[in-house]
Structure formats: structure tokens, C-alpha cells
Design goal:
Keywords: ATP-binding, Ligase, Magnesium, Metal-binding, Nucleotide-binding, Purine biosynthesis. By secondary structure, the protein is of the alpha+beta class. Helix content is 31%, strand content 23%.
């Protein structure tokens, strides 16, 4: 019988963290009513049996305790509330295992302690107030918001008894386009949060009525929304621009690409989905003699290593949840470096942040307007700057990639014409450099009978609908619940395990088993698996994925972005080698499908049939040409707007010192090391 064992450890937070929390709480409760904040950690351990032996309990205590402070870990809580106190317990949402759990369980299993299945911890806060000054229900809710991240955490109203959620996966259903036409897609657009615009609705209605001649499934609709979103396809950058009724001769993307005609002729890879590369140097490398077991290192002969640079932004997720949004922006960009060519090496990263007016408490700036409004489900600019920089550095530190430089901007103003210009939707920029073996520059074209493998973490219900949510034109219009579902959670330790698998394959040189590799991003499996088999097509077996959450539905398995996962093509004869490397690095490697050569992408072998469809109907069965082929370019109507300007007026008595004081208050001025060169993120 599985049960949860509890251990408590005091203190939960360090004194500086507690002081910071007190200052935040005091802004939402009666002035000076808060007397003290005491914290402890509560560890919940899921074991096959609640009755642990004395040795097993000793091992657990060693894993969970702080060195030289073993006595701080007890089986009984040290916090008890009374009439003048409030006890709040906050822990991770239960639909996914945290990185702490993954690594703690791995440590226990390395001891041969296989009964442990999951380890999570919560933070318990005992808030003591002056007599008669307990917060109201509304204030208590605001206090809770000060103590947790609603995207990754929730309140435990009582101690956990189980990690089970007791939920049933949603069934797949058909969208009746044949019977109801565009209105059926409009309804699916609203209920599934697809972010289809009128052009999309017209195009897909016509596609299924005239070309496919059948109803799409809910999974296919969700797939199309992510794979062909603005986020993934860059419709605006590649679209036809009509300026004052006249078509512009080039797309924005073409104009950017044309800059290469006057640049140095040293491109090895340019404008690629993953990274760009410039010509590198002949170097010697220190390589292992064996990638699957112990062995010595040897110095290689001279080999060419090209220089990689890649960059991406993670704007929407960072705006909704700054810390996890920035961690996964960093993680996604690292996966881009890894997936260059047939597998590359990660070296170092950069980070940048552009936010609106900061409105720092007690630090008013004359150019900031306190009356300006922000979307309620977006974090404030100050929180974005602090928490996003914490997140990027936290992920880089845990993975082992230093953040070495970056930038910061804060801007919000109203023009002379009354137009507000501000980074309401923030920019979180992540860039990185890496190395690529000269023999691994070109990915192989997918061939029939090549095997499709997923490398990295198991499937979780996280990052669901990120491509569509990022593509909403007016940020803040989306439902908050959908925004939170669309943001991912990062596990830097799992990404490092995956990195070691890719690195081991790349270090085999000419014997590298990876024929092609793509990083998983927005759209999840539905996007990355289509890309890696295009144009040959493939069949994917849904029951071969490793699930981190047994309640996953078909649509969630196909569309969730869940982090730390890449897709690769390998030859059948190389499957044992890749699996052995994954086993050595404790990184999941799942053989999920095969390249078929039919030009179709098919998802099959799931235990649940399509609701309302024929028996055995596949949740996904589409021609790749229809979803990744030459789709019509979108047309964007634009008009030139005459700008109104007003002369710059200086104050009558503006000294050089006053001017310098104002300028130096801008985050864009002077060193950014306080944002980029951090040793630690948040707790």
C-alpha cells in the first residue's frame, strides 16, 4: 500500500528571505500588524510501504537533512497556530514531479532504495499578528499571493495524504466541420484556446471540406493551432505586407536575409531553425575512449570545430510567470544549441530584459505614470526584471552554462500624439554560443525505416498551448488559466542528463548515431515529430512514451511542450547504442516511432478511441503537405501614420548633476552584472 511519509525541517527560509517576505506581506495587511514569520519545510515521501526499516529511514534523513544540522530534521512539525496566527502551507502542483523529486529519487535508487517513488516538499509559514489583527479573507488571499507562484504552486489546506489526482484523461472528439462548417471550428477555437484568426478559420474549414474531406479530431485542431501559429511559422515576418494599399516588394524576413549579401563570407549555417554557425578552427579535443562505460580519455587528432550562436525570446511566458518563464527560455535556447546539425556542444549564455516602467516602491521617477494599466494576469515590470533574471541565472547555474553578459531596458512613455509606447509584454532574450564538429553540420534527410526516438524528460501536462498563447495579438486577452497552462516548468538537471547523451553521441565523430535532431518547443511532440520526419512522414506509437503523469490525455501528450526533450532519428542498428548511453546518464530514451515514407504523420495505438468517430480512428492522420507544406502567405494591411512630435523642453534650472542623476537611474545605463552575473536564483 503506497503512502506518504512526512519529515519536517526548520528553518524553511533564511533570515534575509523572511525579511523580504515580511516587507511584501506588510503591504497587503493592516499596518504594523504582522509580528513574526516562522517557516519550516515539510517533505512528503511516497514509498511502496509506510513501514520503513531503521536503515531506510536513516538514509532518507541523510538525503533530506542539512550537513552538520541533522537534528533540525524531525518527524513532528514545529509550527502550531493559535488565535493570533495564520498557518499557510504552499507546495508544488501535483500534476508533475519537480526537479527536486527526480533527483532525490535517483539518489535513493542509486543506494538500492527502490521503494521511494516520489519526494516533494512544501513550505509552511506561521504568520503571527497582533491581538485582534488577523487578516480578513480578502487579505489572506493577498498574503497567499505574496508567498507562492500560482503557476507552479498551490496551497495545501491540510497535510497531503496522497499524490494521486484521481482524474480521467479527456477523450478525443471530432469537430463536425463537414456538418456545421466554419461554426464548428469557431466553437473549437473558443473551447480549446486555439487562437485561430479569421484567415485560419477560413483556411482550415476549406482544407477539411475540400481536400481532406473528413472531420478533424480535437487533437488535429490543437496540433494545427500550435504548429501553424504565428509563434512557430512567423506569418508576419514572412507574410505579404500591403502598405497604404500597395504591396511591399519584400517580406521582413527576406530583408533580414538579404543582409548576408554584404557580410563576411564565413557562414556555415544561416537562418536555420536551431542555430547559425560561422567557420571555426582546427583544434585538438579530449575525448573518452568509451561512451557507455568507464575508460580513459585521449587527445584527438586535429578536427574542425565551428562556432555556433543562437538566440530566442521567451516573452509571453516570462510576462505571465517571470521565474519559470525565463528558466525555460534559457532551457529552450540551450536545446537549440544542442540540436544544431547532428548534435553540438553548449558553452556559455547571454540574457537580456526589456520591461515597462518599474514603479519601484519608495523610488518615484518623474517620467513614470502611476495611472497606466497592465493586464491583470501579467507580472509587474519590476517583478519581471528581478524574477526573470533570477530564473535565467538559476537555470544556467544548475545546468552548468554560465550567463556571461546581457542587457536591460526599461521604457514607458506617451508620445505627443497620445500614443502609449511601453514594453507591456516584456522581452526576455536568451542567447548562447557553442561548438559544432565539422562533420556534423548537415542533418540527414529522413529515410524510410529510420527510427524516431525521444531523448529527455517524461511527458507532463505543462506548456500546453504555448504557441497559440504566445500568438494572441493583444496580450492579456487570453484566459488566465490558459496562460498558466501554456507556461512551462524547467528541470535543468534533466536537461544536463540529456545534454550528456547528445554530447556522448557527438563525441563518437563519424560513428555518431544521431542522423538528425530537433529540439522540442511550442506544440510539443506534434510539432517536433512532424518536423523531424518531413517530408517522408512517420507513424508514432503513443503508448511508447514515458509518462510523468498517468492522467495525460491524447491531446496533452501530443501538444504539451513539457521541457527537456529532443527528438532524433537513428538507424535501427544504432538503437541499442543510444539506449545504452541514456541508461548510463539516467536519461529516458524512448523509441516512439518509425519513418514510413508515406508523407503522412500518424499517431496511433492509444488505448482510447475517438469519441463519436469510427472504431480505430487515429487521433492524428494528416498529410504533411497540408500542415507543413507550402501554405498561402498571410496578407497584412498596414497604413502609414503621421507622427506628431513636440520640442524637447528642459527645466529652467537643470544642472549637469541633475541631468546625470536622471540618466543614471535608467536600467539601460551602466553595468548589467547585477542582472546577469548571479550565483543563485530564488529558493
Amino acid at each position: 500500500m503506497t503512502g506518504l511519509i512526512q519529515f519536517y525541517r526548520k528553518p524553511g527560509l533564511c533570515p534575509s528571505q523572511i525579511e523580504f517576505l515580511k516587507s511584501k506581506i506588510e503591504t497587503v495587511v493592516q499596518q504594523s500588524s504582522l509580528e513574526s514569520v516562522v517557516t519550516e519545510l515539510c517533505f512528503y515521501i511516497e514509498a511502496e510501504s509506510k513501514d520503513l526499516s531503521e536503515q531506510e529511514e536513516s538514509v532518507l534523513k541523510w538525503v533530506l537533512s542539512v550537513p552538520f544540522e541533522e537534528s533540525c530534521l524531525t518527524k513532528d512539525t514545529g509550527l502550531n497556530k493559535d488565535a493570533s496566527s495564520l498557518l499557510i502551507e504552499v507546495g508544488p502542483r501535483l500534476n508533475f514531479s519537480t526537479a527536486l523529486s527526480t533527483n532525490s529519487v535517483a539518489i535513493c535508487q542509486s543506494f538500492g532504495f527502490t521503494d521511494i517513488k516520489r519526494i516533494e516538499y512544501s513550505i509552511r509559514y506561521l504568520l503571527t499578528f497582533k491581538a485582534g489583527c488577523l487578516p480578513s479573507a480578502e487579505e489572506e488571499e493577498e498574503v497567499l499571493n505574496c508567498l507562492h507562484d500560482p503557476m507552479t504552486q498551490c496551497r495545501y489546506t491540510e497535510p497531503l495524504q496522497t499524490f494521486d489526482l484521481h482524474t480521467n484523461p479527456d477523450p478525443v472528439f471530432e469537430v463536425d466541420v463537414l456538418g456545421k462548417g466554419r461554426k464548428a471550428l469557431e466553437k473549437a477555437n473558443e473551447t480549446l484556446g486555439l487562437a485561430f484568426d479569421p484567415w485560419d478559420l477560413d483556411y482550415y474549414t476549406q482544407l477539411f471540406l475540400e481536400k481532406v474531406q473528413r472531420n478533424p479530431t480535437s487533437v488535429e485542431c490543437f496540433d494545427l493551432a500550435q504548429s501553424n501559429s504565428e509563434h512557430s511559422r512567423h506569418w508576419f515576418f514572412k507574410g505579404r505586407l500591403m502598405v497604404d494599399g500597395k504591396e511591399w516588394p519584400e517580406s521582413l524576413f527576406s530583408m533580414i536575409m538579404n543582409t548576408q549579401s554584404s557580410s563576411n563570407d564565413n557562414n556555415i549555417i544561416k537562418f536555420n531553425d536551431n542555430s547559425s554557425a560561422i567557420r571555426g578552427y582546427e583544434v585538438k579535443s579530449l575525448l573518452p575512449d568509451s561512451v557507455v562505460g568507464p575508460g580513459k580519455f585521449s587527445v584527438s587528432e586535429n578536427e574542425t570545430r565551428h562556432v555556433i550562436f543562437t538566440a530566442e525570446t521567451h516573452n509571453f511566458p516570462t510576462g505571465v510567470a517571470p521565474f519559470p518563464g525565463a528558466t525555460t527560455g534559457t532551457g529552450g535556447r540551450i536545446r537549440d544549441v544542442q540540436s544544431t546539425g547532428r548534435g553540438a556542444h553548449v558553452i556559455a549564455g547571454t540574457a537580456g530584459y526589456s520591461v515597462g516602467n518599474l514603479h519601484i516602491p519608495g523610488y518615484p521617477l518623474e517620467w513614470e505614470d502611476k495611472e497606466e494599466k497592465y493586464p491583470p494576469n501579467f507580472a509587474r515590470p519590476l517583478d519581471v526584471l528581478i524574477e526573470a533574471s533570477n530564473g535565467a541565472s538559476d537555470y544556467g547555474n544548475k545546468f552548468g552554462e554560465p550567463v556571461i553578459t546581457g542587457f536591460a531596458r526599461s521604457c514607458g512613455l506617451v508620445t505627443a500624439g497620445g500614443e502609449r509606447r511601453e514594453y507591456v509584454k516584456p522581452i526576455m532574450f536568451s542567447g548562447g554560443i557553442g561548438m559544432l564538429d565539422g562533420g556534423h553540420v548537415t542533418k540527414d534527410v529522413p529515410e524510410k525505416s529510420m527510427e524516431i526516438v525521444k531523448i529527455g524528460g517524461p511527458v507532463y501536462r505543462i506548456g500546453l498551448g504555448g504557441g497559440a498563447a504566445s500568438s494572441v495579438q493583444v496580450q492579456g486577452d487570453n484566459q488566465a488559466a490558459r496562460d498558466f497552462s501554456a507556461v512551462q516548468r524547467g528541470d535543468a538537471e534533466m536537461e544536463q542528463k540529456m545534454n550528456r547523451v547528445i554530447r556522448a553521441c557527438a563525441e563518437l565523430g563519424e560513428k555518431n548515431p544521431i542522423r538528425s535532431i530537433h529540439d522540442q518547443g511550442a506544440g510539443g511532440n506534434g510539432n517536433v515529430l512532424k518536423e523531424i520526419v518531413e517530408p517522408a512522414g512517420g507513424v508514432i506509437h503513443a503508448d511508447r512514451f514515458q509518462l510523468g503523469d498517468p492522467t495525460i490525455s491524447v491531446m496533452e501528450l501530443w501538444g504539451a511542450e513539457y521541457q527537456e526533450s529532443n527528438a532524433a532519428l537513428v538507424r535501427h542498428s544504432d538503437l541499442p547504442l543510444v539506449t545504452a548511453i541514456g541508461r548510463r546518464e539516467r536519461c529516458p530514451v524512448s523509441h516512439v516511432g518509425t519513418v514510413t515514407g508515406t508523407g503522412r504523420i500518424q499517431l496511433e495505438n492509444f488505448s482510447r478511441d475517438v469519441k463519436g468517430g469510427d472504431n480505430g480512428r487515429k487521433p492524428v492522420d494528416l498529410e504533411l503537405e497540408h500542415v507543413l507544406g507550402s501554405m498561402p502567405r498571410k496578407v497584412f494591411e498596414m497604413k502609414k501614420v503621421k507622427q506628431e512630435f513636440s520640442p524637447l523642453v528642459y527645466p529652467e534650472k537643470l544642472s549637469v548633476r541633475d541631468a546625470l542623476t536622471k540618466v543614471l537611474r535608467l536600467p539601460s545605463v551602466a553595468s548589467k552584472r547585477y542582472l546577469t552575473n548571479k550565483v543563485m536564483g530564488k529558493h
